[in-house]
Specification:
With 71 residues, the chain is of the alpha+beta class. The chain has one domain. The chain is built from two helices and two strands, in the order αββα.
């Protein structure tokens, strides 16, 4: 595929109306450091330093499509 064909695809995609159907989810990322392993079970004990939330599921697909067609 050459760059002219790719440009045509991008231009056509921006003119289309799309409907995304699916479950909306919220992805949560927890950031931190593992300080030790729990004595009750073999799982890490995390000292949380931050959290981030992003659209997931169908919301992520819709967001990606909107960003893709906006450029």
């Amino acid at each position: 595929m050459n760059s002219e064909r790719l440009q045509q695809i991008f231009e056509r995609a921006g003119k289309q109306r799309l409907l995304v159907i699916g479950d909306l989810m919220l992805d949560e990322f927890v950031w931190g450091k593992v300080g030790r392993i729990s004595p009750e079970a073999p799982v890490p004990v995390v000292e949380v330093s931050g959290e981030s939330f992003y659209p997931g599921g169908a919301a992520n697909v819709a967001r990606n499509l909107r960003e893709f067609t906006a450029h």
